[in-house]
Structures are given as C-alpha cells and as structure tokens.
Design brief:
The complex is a heterodimer of chains A (about 800) and B (about 110). With about 800 residues, chain A is of the alpha/beta class. Helices cover about 30% and strands about 20% of the residues of chain A. A 5-stranded parallel beta sheet of chain A has the order 3-2-1-7-19. Chain A has a 5-stranded parallel beta sheet with strand order 9-16-10-11-12, covered by helices on one side. In chain A, a hairpin with a 5-residue loop joins strand 30 and strand 31. By secondary structure, chain B is mainly β. In chain B, about 0% of the residues lie in helices and about 40% in strands. In chain B, the strands form 3 sheets. A 4-stranded antiparallel beta sheet of chain B has the order 2-3-4-8, with no helix packed on it. Chain B has a 3-stranded antiparallel beta sheet with strand order 1-10-9, with no helix packed on it. Chain B has a 3-stranded antiparallel beta sheet with strand order 5-6-7, with no helix packed on it. Classes of the chains: A alpha/beta (about 800), B mainly beta (about 110).
C-alpha cells in the first residue's frame, strides 16, 4: 500500500518536534516533505539571545542537522515559502513554484515580530527579533554603528538589548509601560532588574510612546522620535513589542483564524486533513509562545497523525524566565494579586533579592522571584497541584529546603551561579546518582527542553525532587527554555486522562467493582493498563469494596505478590511480625532454627524493631513461612504498601521516666492495624514519655505518652524528606487512642493518592481538614473507625499461612528443564 | 532446525504474569499477556540484572521489579528513553502446550 503523504509547512521547533514524535509512534506511515522559508535546518529559537550576545554560535543551536532529514527519509525544502494551499486538490505551492501534494497537512508557521505602524517602520536598520536573519542584521550593525534602540521592555526586548550591549553598542530600551516586564513582574521586582541592567550600561526610557522613526541622510534610520517631541539617536532599531501568529497562509486557504489558526483539542483545524501546532495556533482562545506547551501540542498532534487517536491537549500553565546572563528572574501565575488574594513579600535590595508569593484560599496563585530563583520550579509545582500551603505558609517564602527537606538541594541556597560553576562530575541528584555532566550531555544529545524530559532520560530529580531547582537551572542554562509545564490537571498515568481523585470518586459513585469494569467505564486507552495504574486501581478497588473485591495479584508489585522484599540479586528478605517489638526466648529460638535450616546468609535487626532474614531464594519462601507459621508468627508486611510496624519503648513497666504502658499500647495498636493495605507504607510508634525514645514524631501515626494521657501525632516521615509530625490532638484513654488511630488510618486510606505517604498527604490537604474529620466531628470519627474495622476483617488473614496451606504456591516454583 | 523443548502448559503461567524456566543456558522468563500471547526473555534486566519474571506484565511489556524499566516482550528492547536489550527466545504454543528453544533469537 502506498504511504500517505504528509507535508509540514514551517521548519521550526514545534513542527519538527511533531515529526520526531510521529516518527517514534509510526515510523513508516508517511512520506514526509518539509518546507521552511528560512535557509537553515531546524534550530533552537530560544537560544537566539545567547547567539546575539556572542555566547553561542549558530552551529551550536541547530537541533536537526540536514543529515537528520536525510536519515529519516524526509524531503527538506529550505528557503522556500509556501504561498498557497489548494485544499480541493490537496496541493501546496511555494514562492518558487515548487508544489507538493498531501494527504495530511501540518501548519507550523510560527509567529513574526509585530512592527509598530509608525512612519519609517520600513526603513533600513529597523528589524524584529525572531530569526537568524534578524540576529545577523543586528550583529552586522553592531560592527558598523554605535546607537541602538530597542522598542519594547518585555523579555525579548531586554534580551536583545543585553545582546547588543555585549556587542559593544550603546543601547536604549524604550517602553510604553511604567516599568519593565509589566506582564511578568510587579513594580518592586522590576525596579531591581532595571538597576541591575543599568549597572550593565543599558539606558531606559519608560512611559515613552514611539511616534516616528526618522530617516537619515544615508536613507537608513537615524533616530526615534516620541509623542512628547523628544528623540534619541538610533542607527539600529529593534522592534520587540510583541509577536503575531503567522496566519496569512491559513486565512488565504479559508481556514478559520482568530488571533491564530483555530484548532480543537486534537490540534486539528476546521479542515480535518489539516493540523496546526505551535505559535501560529489558537487553542481555546490562547496562543502559546513558550516551548513546553508547544511540545505538549506536538505530542498530541503526532498521536493523531499516527492515527492512535487517544491524546488530547487541554491547555498548559506557563511560567517564564529571562535569559540574561547573571540575572535570575522567575514568574508564574497571577503575581499581581487582587481582590481575595493575599501577598507574602520579601525584599532585600542590598542583595538584589525580591520574592513575592500571591495566595488565594491558602493556595499559591502566583509567584515572582528576582535574584534567587532556585525555588521557582517548586512554587510552580505547588501552583499546578493546587497544594494547600496553610501548614507551612510561614516558611513558604524561604523555599523548599526550609520546610524540613534535607535533600540534595539543601545548603546550596541562592547561589545559582555556583550551580553552573560546579564541575561536570558534581553529583546533582543524590537519589539516582546523576552528575551535572550527565544532565548536560542528555540535554544536548537528546534535545531535551522540559524538566519532565530530563527526568525521563536521566532520572535526575525524579525521586525525592529536592534537586529539582538545580536540575532546572542546568536545563535552562544548557537549552534555554521555560520551566516545565504540564496540563493543569495531572492524570494518574498515560493510560487515562483522569486524576487519582476522579478515579477514586468514580469507583465509589458508579459502584465499579473490578478492574476491567473500571478501565472500561473510565475510558482507559490501553488494554490492561500499566505498572503504574494497575497497582493503584487494585488498591482503590480494595479500599472501596473491602468485603467484595477480589484482589488481583498480577496487579501488585512483586514484594506484595511474594510477601517478601525483593533484593538487588533477586533474592527476598523475610520479616516475621513481632507485635510491638515484644518477643519471647521461644520466638527467638524459632527464628534461629529457621535461619539455620535454610542457611540464611544474613540476619539483621530492622529500624522498626523486627528481625530480618536476608538472601532467601523465592522457591524456599513457602517452606520457610510454614516453619515460622507453625511457631506462631504471621507475616510482618515489611514488603508492602501496608501497615508496617509499631515501634515502642519499654514504658512505665520498667522505665523510671515512663508515664504509661507504651509497649502494651503498641501491641494493641499493632493488633488493630496489622494486615491493613494502605496507599503507601505506614508506620506507627508509641513513646512512654516525652523523651520519645521510640521516635514517634517522625512516624505516620505517633503516640507520645504523658502523665495526663496520650498525645497523638500524625504525618511524620524519617525518609528522604524528614518531616516532623503535626499534633492531631490529646486524648485520655487507650480506647480513644485506638479509635483515633483507626479513624486517621481510614481517612488516609480513603483520601490519599496511591504511593503518597501521610506526610505529603497531610501537607496537601492540610491539618485543619484532618482535624475536622477526625477530631472535631465525633460521629464521623466513629464512622471512619468502623469502616477501618470492617476492612480489617478480610485483611487480617496471614498471607504466609495461606500459602503454606497451598494457595497460589505454584508461582514460587521455577520450572526446571533438563538439557 | 529449532530444537523445541516443552516447558509448561498455558495454565501453568498466570495471565499477566510469568514463570521462570531454569535451563543450562540460565534462567528464562516465560510471560503470558492478558490476551494469552506467550513470550520468552532472558530473566535479566539489561539495566542492573533484575529478574524480569517478577515484574508487572502490561500490554506487551514488563516492568522490571528493581528500577521500573519497561522492557518490550516482543523485541526485548528497553522502552525509550532507557536503552538496552534482553535476549529473546523463540516460543511456540500448540494445543495449550508451550515449547521453548534455548537458542536466543538474533
């Protein structure tokens, strides 16, 4: 069968990214022809500013060399502008008469500089700032002339001005608004920026309206004249007052355009054979000018060109960054504030640092950072995820590592330049062992532009996330570009467009009771999900229907399927449960016997006061469990997204400081909660006095005994991000401790996202919400505790005993083949 | 000529699961997808040698249990952006009986 013909009009970043995505998804579907009106192959337009400033060369910013087009069988026509689309005969025609027929047409015509309609705008020496030709014009002018005027004090204007200054020109920036970057910054931040740029030698003419560009004797522009009658000399005028989507071609072909080529959520224009992506597009009324949203569009468009037909583009949240070396600026969202908004501001003019956060309903609505932008990505995530910040609002302004994050980002503070001064061998991501050089190499070679892409390729900042700011800085310095943007709602995984919360709500509301039914009802786009959504769905169904749902072992991680922790060599570890950490000499003897019998290579006491047997072969697990089960042990669930352990101190029975029977209470708590499946691992502790030897204040649920009763603490974590618990309440009796514990556990089970520990959950929903449900509303507390007890009935069946009695043991045995 | 060795019946392998076949050539993971297709790969992730047989099988892929690399059951290749390859072994299913060749495919 003949291949379909795809013609791309526009040889720029959005169009080429679409082709790259398409070649990945359906490499052989199309014969592809590309037309570009520039004489160059696809290059990184974001990096034009560093090229103008002389920091990079044109060769360095080429993204797809001519060899790439050849290697992928793509016909490339550079320097040819498409002037006509004949939709009836499905042919495009270039200005030199070259024609190409298409089955699918992709328009990625980008945008052009808006040229002010003033007299003299067409004089020699007047340019926009969009492409390599503009940069060449400016560089040539800088070697012959002295006076440059940039009209427009936005991001592009300032970058142009900085570049021309670096090239040795005297540069004045003309701006109509009272302060620079009025769409990205508020006035105080802008004043700091202006001072910094003035120190670099730039001049600013604010609140000036251009009336005319004056023609000199040579025929070239010689001055800019303003409405107030004043004027400045100018041998070069750069118009950077905005961009306009290139829609002439689409309009001439009768496609609907309205400040951009109008497309639907699949990036299709009003002609179903014609798609459009990039800056030329109007999607839901918005024309995006930043790279990350355009790449989102490219991905969606490629999906439909490949006829997979599942992806949708739903718009993006964006943030911006100024690429002027030595100046760090970040802004996102609604940073001006307004009615119903609150502002938190930090200003230190001496250090050149300014931060402003805008809150609405205890959520971050906008941010402006000047000088210290390391936390930009974190603020952006808080905005995107609509995180409730009330619990750490007092520390919010000081950044991520001031809210109990001791990860790799801590300590580097605001020394952004230090990040770039680090050697390539410097470790950036401690979790995944990724060095600065690895990140730079991946960004360059794989042409990465967004944080998500860097995470996918290098794993950097993909685990605890505390080095996100550092990774972002390296990315921005290497590839330019803006901060990562993702669709405003974050689906559970790529198999669905629904969020965790939507899926949980649907399962309950529509009584979805098994996985195939849930996937069908919610419109899953894969036949049987993926390794991310299946365990989540299995848990959500189990949590919603504890008495009915048939657990799906194949949708559990191996640890939960094999009831042990898989180790790096493929062996397993086995942890028998010891309630409250108590044990008898007979228990210890039984464990010792098992260790001897199965030649266990290593025995260790765990952090949760249990005994861990390491290096067990999978096929030995059932026999070993039988011995442990016969000795009275049940599984310790040290392997599961489940209730793990209750750590205790000795308490009033022995300790001279003890105030209550902490060990006895720990045993009762463990008897109540063992076997419970949770969104993530869940640990408890009981300390007998405020000296807190059981470290209860870094547990998911911690009890600290005092003379008058029991303090209940929640949401602690001792892992990558140490987080001290919040005090939930204080109660007087052990019965109350048990009831509150059950209620809190159930609220977490019902509300948290799968793989979300209590610490981030508490931060996300806010302590006030948890108090309201568990402390203030006694009836709700009792209902939660009752639902927990109901779910525990089927859960407290020892999986080890089940297996030793013959259930599902076959999976543990290998098949031997004699050869 | 391929030397086929009968190793198991379809029912011996859980759907969306795998079994390990130990052979003189090392451990081989035999997978069964949701629609009962059978694939065989060397039971060793190209990343850090994790036992692929223990991973979650979804579509025609398996997620390595150690670091969540996704490996294509059809090609043995790691799914981009990761790079690497696990050797594939020929399998055939006749009347529910699964046979394996111990000579990996090129």
């Amino acid at each position: 069968m003949a291949r379909m013909r795809l013609v791309l009009v526009g040889n720029g970043m959005a169009g080429l990214r679409t082709l790259e995505e398409l070649l990945k998804a359906a490499p052989d579907q199309y014969d592809i022809t590309v037309f570009g009106d520039e004489p160059h192959p696809n290059y990184n337009r974001i990096m034009l500013s560093p090229v103008l400033a002389g920091e990079q060369t044109v060769e360095q910013i080429v993204l797809n060399s001519r060899d790439w087009y050849v290697a992928n069988g793509i016909t490339l026509h550079t320097g040819r502008k498409i002037v006509k689309i004949d939709r009836k005969n499905r042919v495009v025609e270039a200005d030199d008469g070259t024609r190409a027929e298409y089955d699918r047409l992709l328009l990625a015509t980008g945008s052009k500089s808006f040229i002010l309609p003033v007299p003299g705008a067409d004089l020699p020496g007047v340019v926009g700032f969009r492409d390599i030709a503009d940069v060449d014009t400016m560089v040539r002018a800088s070697s012959q002339y002295q006076n440059a005027v940039v009209i427009g004090g936005g991001l592009l204007g300032l970058e142009a001005a900085n570049g021309l200054k670096m090239r040795g020109m005297d540069v004045s920036v003309v701006h109509i608004a009272p302060w620079l970057l009025e769409r990205q910054m508020d006035e105080p931040a802008s004043r700091l920026l202006q001072e910094n740029l003035e120190e670099k030698g730039l001049k600013f003419l604010l609140q000036k309206q251009t009336a005319e560009l004056v023609r000199g004797e040579s025929g070239r522009v010689c001055a800019v004249k303003f409405k107030d009658g004043e004027s400045v000399p100018a041998d070069l005028v750069v118009m950077a007052v905005g961009i306009r989507p290139n829609t002439e071609l689409a309009e001439s072909a009768g496609l609907q355009c309205k400040r951009g080529i109008v497309v639907n959520d699949t990036m299709q224009t009003f002609d179903p054979r014609i798609y459009a992506v990039g800056e030329c597009v109007n999607h839901r009324g918005i024309a995006y000018g930043l790279v990350a949203p355009l790449f989102e569009q490219a991905k969606v468009c490629a999906n439909h060109l490949a006829e997979h037909g599942v992806a949708q583009y739903q718009g993006s949240m964006t943030s911006t960054k100024l690429k002027v070396t030595g100046i760090d600026l970040f802004s996102a969202g609604n940073f001006m504030g307004g009615e119903g908004m609150e502002e938190i501001v930090f200003q230190d003019a001496g250090r050149g640092s300014y931060k402003k956060l805008v809150l609405k309903d205890n959520k971050l609505a906008g941010a402006v950072l000047y000088g210290d932008t390391l936390d930009g990505a974190w603020y952006f995530e808080l905005m995107r995820d609509a995180t409730d910040v009330s619990d750490f609002r007092d520390k919010l302004l000081f950044g991520r590592h001031h809210i109990g994050d001791s990860g790799a980002g801590g300590g580097l503070g605001d020394e952004l330049s230090r990040v770039m001064a680090l050697p390539d061998s410097a470790e950036i991501c401690g979790c995944n062992g990724v060095c600065k050089g690895d990140i730079i190499k991946a960004v360059r070679e794989k042409k990465l532009f967004t944080l998500d892409e860097v995470r996918a390729h290098t794993k950097a900042s993909g685990s605890c996330g505390s080095c996100t700011g550092l990774v972002e800085t390296i990315l921005a310095a290497t590839a330019g570009g803006d901060y990562s943007t993702a669709p405003s709602k974050k689906p559970l995984c790529n198999c669905t467009e629904h969020t965790h919360d939507e899926i949980r709500a649907s399962i309950v509301e529509h009584e979805l009771k098994d996985m195939p039914e849930a996937m069908r009802f919610l419109g899953w786009n894969t036949p049987d999900g993926c390794a991310k959504c299946r365990p989540a769905l299995n848990y959500y169904l189990l949590c919603a229907w504890p008495e009915e749902y048939q657990d799906d072992a194949q949708s559990r991680y191996i640890n939960e399927r094999a009831h042990g922790n898989i180790q790096k060599d493929g062996s397993f570890s086995v942890v028998p449960r010891m309630f409250g950490g108590l044990c008898t000499p007979a228990d210890l003897r039984a464990i010792a016997d098992v260790a001897d019998k199965f030649k266990v290579p290593e025995v260790k006491v765990t952090g949760g006061q249990r005994i861990d047997l390491f290096g067990i072969k999978k096929e030995d697990l059932p026999a070993m469990w039988k011995d442990l089960s016969d000795a009275g042990f049940v599984s310790g669930h040290a392997y599961g997204k489940a209730m793990r352990t209750v750590k205790t101190c000795v308490g009033a029975k022995w300790c001279r400081f003890g105030t209550q029977d902490s060990t006895g209470l720990g045993v009762k708590l463990e008897e109540l909660t063992w076997g419970s499946w949770m969104p993530h691992k869940y640990k408890l502790a009981v300390s007998g006095c405020p000296r807190n030897c059981a470290e209860a204040t870094i547990k998911d649920f911690g009890v600290v005994c005092v003379d008058s009763g029991y303090e209940l603490h929640v949401g602690g974590n001792g892992g990558i991000k140490v987080r001290v618990t919040d005090l939930l309440t204080k109660v007087e009796s052990e019965e109350q401790v048990l009831e509150f514990s059950a209620a809190f556990a159930q609220l977490y089970r019902e509300e948290a996202h799968y793989l979300e520990r209590t610490a981030p959950w508490v931060e996300r929903v806010g302590l006030a919400h948890i108090k309201e449900k568990v402390v203030e509303d006694a009836a709700n507390r009792k209902a939660l505790a009752e639902r927990f007890r109901v779910s525990q009935k089927p859960a407290q069946v020892d999986p080890w005993k089940e297996r030793t009695e013959g259930a599902k043991t076959r999976e543990f045995l290998p098949i031997h083949v004699a050869t | 000529m391929t030397d086929w060795i009968e190793v198991a019946h379809l029912d011996d392998i859980p759907r969306q699961g795998a079994r390990v076949v130990t052979t003189s050539a090392g451990a081989i993971a035999v997978f069964r997808t949701v629609d009962d297709e059978i694939f065989a790969l060397r039971d060793k992730c190209p990343h850090k040698g994790g036992p692929l047989s223990q991973g979650i099988v979804h579509g025609k892929r398996v997620a390595c249990p150690l670091h969540d690399w996704k490996i294509s059951l059809e090609t043995g290749l790691a799914v981009a952006p990761d790079e690497g390859c696990a050797a594939r072994y020929p399998v055939r299913v006749e009347a529910g009986r699964i046979s394996l060749s111990l000579t990996p495919e090129k």
